[in-house]
């Protein structure tokens, strides 16, 4: 007659559990129905969701204070994550029925899905309302956000890959103090680097989990190939396959190593060269204890894709807020401020005339490596749809590149699969929504 | 007989003794229900609203094609399920999950028990070592991922350094899928050891000392004493850990995300939860992500029901 | 008698030596990664990644720690973490103990189902609950509030299950005697059951503190600023994204986040004292 329980759960079945679940009722939905603040009147404050790319919180705060002084609009800066994926996650949560920000950071691979689902607003009309000179922006950076005659974001913390090299190892190998002009030249230099510096990798690249697909994209272009031509997949074109084989061959000959932590391998003097984002320039310079040289990615151009993040405005906020948000974006990315931002972070200035800004000249003289990065902008090109617009594109291609390097699999087979998978994803997830 | 005892009960907060003993069983049951309700309802409501409501939502969404950023989801029946079950990637993911979970459960439970037994004794420096064993459990998963780069990195790592001293080359922990899975499993066990350790330690500390004393008088060997006296008393804790460690390791995310992002070769260390995350938030296929989550839930439900069944049988003894 | 005593003495000494050897090994394996976190937080940036490995920080610097203090509103985040963790720990321990008591000692219809309902909620990963809960919390107007962070996390399944299991393992005769005493349930819980449960209750409390202290994803979604965001969210802004993370301050932040919890552990584990149970049985 004791009340302490020894009753077995033996007879419980899954069905009983489901019944128990049903008792809780099924409210809720995954869909959005309301938007953020609405209503008229002048906008007094804005909310800006950022992950402070490039340790930029201090400079962001400074710029926002300047904006408030100029416009009288207070800006609430929110840390929305530690990377672009987390910001996107928080934004998606807000889309499901929360309060939307007025400006949000969107990366090269996240903006398009927001555009496709009408989560962010097209900007061309706002440009004329708020009087933004869109032509002042670096063309390739602005056009990265173009889709069907509209633009869905403005360039902000933009970067490109850059060729880094260890000057001491370069001179030990008797090489001229510059980067290789073509990948063929690299193939000639690599054995010299290996011979002169025993035990090191001539070049190290981040692996497929760390955006090898981004760095390889430029390489593919120099071979005349590409991942895709608009929405047509081109992984199986002769040129693309040739580039894949070149990468595989360089890997096999140990001219190019692939690493989970390429940055630090290079920084610790374990590799003679590195392809890495311009965003790493400041970090690498302060972490490395040797002279770092920088160069354009091997050509012929275009051999270098753009990357990084832009600023977008949610669709479901009021028109007044959109206009105020556009003013904020225009302010953050105007010549004077993009110069400040890029000097503080190492990202590319996004205005064409930034190079001629009086603050830029002395800075470039002091930081010749940054000059390389800036000059390379002219020969960069917008990325292939298969990598940035197709959902999961980067990870998919990265995995394929892992397979042909680390995995040693046949290039044709892997690229054919990439072609098929990408086409499937396009037809399933994108085409019906266009 | 009941009245005697009731009369002897301490007064104060206890309700007045029942004047009519024959009515007690029913009355008591009624009161039991009331009290049980008061004790349980707040918790059940919270779990219902914040865990089961989303779960049901999730099950509903698993039958749709839903882009995470889109306000609308399209009903597509079992398409997502068909896709998951027929995809070769899913099989790899399922396999990774099984290997990881089994290794994590066995590894962390055996080691946790061993440590708890060791640190249950009176040894010099015991308190400090207890804290040390618990410490990894306190570190956030993301920081663990960073710290273990210093352990496993083939260029900078400790393992590489130690192996190098005996002339052995470090395995390619980040590039060979098997070694990568090994690496995240070891890391997870290291981090989770504090959890199994504390539960086992609590069970050991809470055990009935008089049984131990009896065994000591019998001068039974250490092993016999453990098997005959200690182990049976640890059985509830063991079953509890079997269930919770399995559930926790099935759901590991941080460590994989910071160490390998599910790679190498695409899905070398992708487990089901990581796939849920990937599909939902990276590929924006929230409907498909919900499907993976639902399948995972069903798998776990079956395993847990089996475990609970065994556990209840054990407790009946 | 004398023949059995000597070997027993012998094994005991062997056991002791083995114990210390085991202890040493554990210290090494568990401590090394922790040691790396610690020394890396004391190193200058170029010294963190070197070949060969640098076992000691040279020079030893505290800059990373001051960087944490100056780079983020550390004290605000610390305060928020303390508020969130204390509230959640108190709520969860109370709810967990009460629920477990009901499931272990009270008779009511559908008890097994309720237990399964509780355990079942452990099967749901938070990746699938966050979006749905976010929508609800936003509708309730709880965004960027402590309520919004705390309430959705307050349900307790793990602790209920743990305590219920422990309660069932308590000596039956004592429980029955207490029931015979017709003590009220709260009284029985407080006077009889809990005194026999301190070690497990402390384990429950410790694990709850750790889990809530390290909550990241949910507070990140709900919190917008330093008025409510806890430490892990606050420290996230130290991590660079596309560039090269400066691990020194990040690891310093990790160490600072860990310390308070380790102190709590050190304080609480002393109370996991053996013998209370025995006392209760005899008394």
Oligomer state of the chains in this structure: heterotrimer
Spans of chain A with pLDDT under 50 lasting ≥5 residues? 1-39
Count of helix runs of chain C: 15
The CATH homologous superfamily of the largest domain in chain C is called MetI-like
Number of domains of chain C: 2
Helix content of chain C: over 70%
Largest interface: B-C, 115 and 116 residues
Q: What is the CATH homologous superfamily assignment of the largest domain in chain A?
A: Periplasmic binding protein-like II
Question: If you had to describe this structure to a student in words, what would you say it looks like?
Answer:
The complex is a heterotrimer of chains A (434), B (317) and C (283). Chain A has helices spanning 14-23, 57-71, 84-95, 111-116, 124-130, 139-143, 167-172, 183-196, 212-222, 238-252, 262-267, 281-287, 319-332, 335-345, 360-366, 368-376, 385-388, 393-404, 411-430; strands spanning 45-50, 74-79, 103-107, 146-147, 150-151, 154-159, 161-166, 201-206, 228-229, 232-233, 256-259, 271-277, 292-295, 304-305, 307-312, 380-381. By secondary structure, chain A is an alpha/beta fold. Chain A has two domains: 45-159 and 307-357, Periplasmic binding protein-like II (D-Maltodextrin-Binding Protein, domain 2), CATH 3.40.190.10; 161-305 and 381-433, D-Maltodextrin-Binding Protein, domain 2 (3-Layer(aba) Sandwich). In chain A, the strands form five sheets. Chain A has a five-stranded mixed sheet with strand order 2-1-3-15-6. Chain B has 317 residues and is mostly helical. The model of chain B is unreliable at 1-25 (pLDDT under 50). Chain C is mostly helical and 283 residues long. Chain C folds into two domains: 2-63, no CATH class; 66-282, MetI-like fold, CATH 1.10.3720.10. Helix content of chain C is 71%, strand content 0%. In chain C, helix 3 (63-71) packs across helix 14, helix 4 crosses helix 8 and helix 11 (198-213) runs antiparallel to helix 14. The two termini of chain C are 32 Å apart. Classes of the chains: A alpha/beta (434), B mainly alpha (317), C mainly alpha (283). Chains in contact: A-B, A-C, B-C.
């Amino acid at each position: 007659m004791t009340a302490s329980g020894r009753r077995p759960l033996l007879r419980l079945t899954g069905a009983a559990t489901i019944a128990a679940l049903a008792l809780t009722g099924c409210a809720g939905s995954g869909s959005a129905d309301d938007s953020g603040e609405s209503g008229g009147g002048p906008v007094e404050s804005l909310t800006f969701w950022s992950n402070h790319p490039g340790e930029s919180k201090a400079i962001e705060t400074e710029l926002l204070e300047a904006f408030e002084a100029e416009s009288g609009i207070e800006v609430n800066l929110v840390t929305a994550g530690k990377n672009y994926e987390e910001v996107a996650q928080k934004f998606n949560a807000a889309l499901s029925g929360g309060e939307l920000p007025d400006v949000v950071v969107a990366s090269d691979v996240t903006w398009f899905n927001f555009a496709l689902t009408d989560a962010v607003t097209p900007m061309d009309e706002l440009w004329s309302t708020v009087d933004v000179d869109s032509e002042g922006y670096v063309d390739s950076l602005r056009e990265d956000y173009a889709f069907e005659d509209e633009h869905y974001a403005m360039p902000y913390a933009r970067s490109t890959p850059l060729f880094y090299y260890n000057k001491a190892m370069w001179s030990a190998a008797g090489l001229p103090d510059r980067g290789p002009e073509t990948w063929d030249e690299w193939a000639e230099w690599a054995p010299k680097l290996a011979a002169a510096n025993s035990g090191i990798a001539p070049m190290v690249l981040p692996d497929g989990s760390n955006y090898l697909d981004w760095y390889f994209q430029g390489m593919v272009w120099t071979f005349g190939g590409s991942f895709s031509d608009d929405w047509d997949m081109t992984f199986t074109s002769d040129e693309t396959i040739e580039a894949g084989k070149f990468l595989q061959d360089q890997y096999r000959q140990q001219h190019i190593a692939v690493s989970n932590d390429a940055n630090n391998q290079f920084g610790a003097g374990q590799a003679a060269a590195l392809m890495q984002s311009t965003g790493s320039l400041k970090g690498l310079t302060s972490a490395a204890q040797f002279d770092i040289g920088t160069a354009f990615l091997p050509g012929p151009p275009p051999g270098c894709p753009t990357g990084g993040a832009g600023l977008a405005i949610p669709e479901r906020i009021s028109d007044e807020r959109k206009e105020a948000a556009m003013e904020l974006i225009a302010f953050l990315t105007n010549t004077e401020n993009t110069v400040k931002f890029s000097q503080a972070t190492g990202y590319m200035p996004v205005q064409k005339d930034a190079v001629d800004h009086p603050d830029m000249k002395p800075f470039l003289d002091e930081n010749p490596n940054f000059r390389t990065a800036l000059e390379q902008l002219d020969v960069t090109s917008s990325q292939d749809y298969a990598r940035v617009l197709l959902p999961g594109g980067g990870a998919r291609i990265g995995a394929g590149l892992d397979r042909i390097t680390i995995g040693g699999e046949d290039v044709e087979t892997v690229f054919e699969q990439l072609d098929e998978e990408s086409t499937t994803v396009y037809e399933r997830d994108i085409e019906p929504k266009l | 007989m009941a009245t005697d005892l009731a009369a002897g009960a301490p007064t104060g907060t206890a309700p007045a003794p029942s004047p009519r003993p024959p009515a007690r069983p029913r009355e008591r049951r009624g009161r039991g229900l009331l009290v049980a309700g008061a004790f349980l309802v707040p918790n059940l409501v919270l779990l219902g609203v914040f865990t089961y409501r989303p779960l049901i939502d999730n099950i509903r969404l698993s039958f749709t094609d839903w882009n995470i950023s889109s306000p609308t989801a399209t009903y597509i029946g079992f398409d997502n399920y068909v896709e998951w079950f027929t995809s070769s990637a899913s099989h790899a993911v399922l396999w990774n999950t099984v290997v990881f979970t089994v290794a994590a459960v066995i590894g962390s439970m055996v080691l946790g028990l061993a440590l708890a037994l060791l640190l249950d004794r009176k040894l010099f420096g015991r308190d400090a070592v207890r804290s040390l064993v618990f410490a990894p459990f306190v570190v956030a998963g993301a920081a663990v991922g960073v710290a273990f780069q210093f352990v496993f990195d083939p260029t900078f790592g400790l393992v590489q350094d130690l192996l190098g001293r005996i002339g052995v080359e470090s395995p390619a922990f980040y590039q060979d899928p098997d070694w990568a899975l090994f690496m995240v499993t070891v890391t997870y066990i290291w981090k989770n050891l504090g959890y199994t350790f504390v539960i086992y330690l609590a069970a050991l500390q809470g055990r009935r000392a008089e049984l131990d004393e009896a065994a000591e008088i019998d001068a039974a060997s250490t092993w016999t004493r453990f098997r005959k006296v200690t182990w049976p008393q640890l059985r509830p804790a063991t079953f509890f850990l079997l269930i919770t460690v399995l559930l926790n390791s099935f759901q590991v995310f941080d460590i994989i995300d910071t160490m390998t992002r599910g790679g190498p070769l695409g899905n070398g260390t992708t487990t089901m939860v990581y796939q849920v995350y990937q599909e939902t938030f990276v590929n924006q296929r929230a409907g498909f992500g919900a499907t993976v989550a639902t399948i995972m839930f069903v798998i776990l439900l079956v395993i847990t029901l089996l475990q609970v069944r065994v556990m209840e049988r054990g407790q009946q003894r | 008698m004398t023949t059995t005593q000597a070997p027993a003495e012998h094994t005991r000494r062997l056991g002791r030596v083995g114990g210390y050897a085991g202890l040493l090994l554990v210290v090494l394996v568990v401590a090394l990664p922790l040691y790396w976190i610690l020394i890396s937080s004391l190193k200058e940036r170029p010294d963190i990644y070197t070949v060969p490995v640098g076992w000691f920080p040279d020079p030893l610097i505290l800059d990373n720690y001051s960087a944490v203090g100056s780079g983020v509103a550390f004290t605000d985040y610390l305060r928020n973490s303390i508020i969130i963790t204390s509230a959640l720990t108190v709520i969860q321990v109370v709810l967990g103990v009460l629920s477990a008591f009901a499931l272990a000692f009270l008779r009511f219809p559908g008890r097994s189902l309720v237990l399964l309902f509780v355990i079942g909620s452990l099967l749901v990963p938070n990746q699938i609950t966050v979006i749905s809960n976010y929508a609800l919390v936003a509708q309730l107007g709880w965004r960027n509030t402590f309520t919004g962070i705390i309430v959705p996390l307050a349900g307790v399944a793990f602790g209920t299950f743990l305590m219920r299991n422990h309660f069932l393992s308590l000596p039956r005769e004592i429980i029955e005697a207490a029931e015979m005493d017709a003590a009220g349930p709260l009284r029985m819980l407080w006077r009889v059951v809990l005194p026999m449960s301190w070690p497990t209750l402390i384990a429950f409390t410790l694990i709850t503190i750790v889990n809530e202290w390290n909550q990241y994803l949910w507070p990140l979604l709900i919190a917008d600023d330093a008025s409510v965001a806890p430490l892990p969210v606050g420290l996230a802004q130290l991590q660079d994204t596309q560039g090269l993370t400066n691990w020194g301050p990040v690891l310093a932040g990790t160490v600072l986040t860990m310390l308070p919890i380790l102190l709590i552990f050190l304080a609480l584990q002393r109370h996991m004292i053996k013998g209370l149970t025995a006392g209760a049985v005899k008394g």
